[in-house]
Amino acid sequence: MKEKTNLSVGVDLGTSNLLIYVEGQGTLFNEPSIIAIDKATRNVVSVGYEAAKLDGKTHSKVEVARPLQGGVISDIQLIREILLYTLDKIFLSNLDSINKLLICIPSEITNTEKEAIVELGHSLGIQNTEIEEEIKAGALGSGLDIFAPKGHMVIDIGGGTTDFGILSLGEVVLSKSIKIAGDYFDRQIIDYVKTTHKLEIGNQTAERIKIALSSLTGPYPMDEDCNLIHAEAMGRDLVSGLPRQITLSPQEIREVLLRSFDPIKSILLATLEETPPELAGDLVDSGILLTGGCSQIPGIKEYFSEIAQIPVYLSEVPLTAVIDGCKKMLKMTSRYFYSEV
Predict the structure, then answer these.
(1) pTM higher than 0.85, yes or no?
(2) What are the binding residues?
(3) Which residues does the record give as ATP binding sites (predicted)?
């Protein structure tokens, strides 16, 4: 009889991307948290990149959905289907080889939603299912010693939310969250193009423009010849109803982003004001760590540093910090220590 394998599995259940780490094998899945479902049978058509390709291009028989929106679970059953589909693919349906499942979740998920996530793991036959906050995992995965008696601040700018956390002694002392992040920036670009240029564009076009032209401070994005980068946007003309193409400048997108960041700025200041004095003093040296996909926006480090008047650092692994921290947590020998082995 073949001996049963007991593996630990970590999951970064992000609004934009789903990442799955398997003990001894590394991160085996890193794709968009998107699922395509056959409306008639409710069977999974595709998950991840393949499902993302269908976004905005499906017919009436297929539904493309994001089970997490704005850091909130919109459909727990679809999350179950995504996890079942991906874990089945990795383990070839042999899920009983999973001994422990650690799922990292957004900070603002309610207790009811947390219980639902744990029950989801149980429904997959994994009784040893635990959850942890992404802000804590992201700090650990970025190399911070969060177990020391010293205050650290992390800002995680993901797809659905921007999360703020003050950590010390291995726990989140204070946290705040706002539903303004990558997806919101895309919607603001869509609204701007619609209002200013009378052109309707889709989510994929908006995201491509954001990646190409975004900046908050300093020089605008330039090419190798030091010329300003522009981006083409194609969509439907709101007046004629015909396809049309326009050119957008980096100056336009910066204005959109700066307006979008104003509420983020307010939450940052509110978090600093509520931080206990001793921990606030630590931040003068430890500064602020930025993680998440949108921490890669040019000029963001300088933007936050000017507001907070303390050092700001970018994670060296902004896109994988949470799953890297999840990996370390799976090796923890207690709540406050982990093994490097």
Answers:
(1) yes
(2) 159-161, 207-210
(3) 159-161, 207-210
